[in-house]
Sequence to fold (327 residues):
Amino acid sequence: MSEVLSQHEIDALLSAISSGDMEVEEIRSQEEERRVKVYDFKRALRFSKDQMRNLTRIHEQFARVLTTHFSAQLRTYVQFTVNTVEQLPYDEFIHSIPNMTLINLVNLHPLDGRVIFEVNPNIAYAMLDRLLGGPGEGMNKIENLTEIETRILTQLFKRAFVQYGAAWESIAEIEAEYDDLEINPQFLQLVSPNETVILVSIYVTVGEVSGTLNVCLPFVTLEPIIPKLSSHFWMQQEKRKSADNQESEHMQTQLMGSIVDLKAVLGQTELSFGELLHLEVGDCLSLQTRTSDPVELFVDDRKMFKARPGLNGKHLALQVLQRIEEE
Fold:
């Protein structure tokens, strides 16, 4: 949007043109220069500022989940904080991380494609050292990663990153499934080199060791849910939730005033058709229940409770003993 001039600025501009201090052609050339903007086609911006803000909010929530999870796992001070959220080409992301690092691949169902969680080796070894009873010192010996260490780290990250879907629950129902652990990013072709990705850089502190956790989300993976990242969608969701709550409260009020039939069955017995024909006033029928057994209480022909019959003043009454669970 072009800048709106105040009345004072307009008067000053007209005065400069009238006095000859400024030429009309000069103003036109300046206007043309303003219209020209540099655009790098290799860094195509596919996410709006509004969507980037919502992505930041989602990952701030995920960072809080990771802080709680790793604090309980490692029994030491752990802090995850979102540092930056930006969009850039996939090739630029691959060249920005170390040649040897810990790359966790996670599937997001029902979305297509995978997400990368790149963990700085210094942080990973501090976590590993803490799990094995050490003080949590960081080191970088990723080239000599043993099979046992790989297994422990895989299980550690798997338990943490499968919780990623919970951070998206306000946007869509996403289930995170841990796929694999890779070491060399150069052999990982997740998408084409020029494909736009979202890079979320999370600053991690484990005891006195610090480093970064990078989350890489390809545009093609997020494309089906991108419209839901707008503030307009969030407002509609809040209105829908409010309407649903009002409808639920109204339905609950109506149900609370409903009348239902309640009946108690003292017992049952079986008779032949001949015995039924010869029944007379004063005959006694032996039921299949004892006098000490509770009776069954039905609500609209549905067995709901067990109760004990008795008297309440001059009226017959039932004392509810327990609820009958559905089979």
In short: Residues 38 and 44 are 12 Å apart (CA to CA). The two ends are 66 Å apart (CA to CA). Residues 9-38 form one domain.
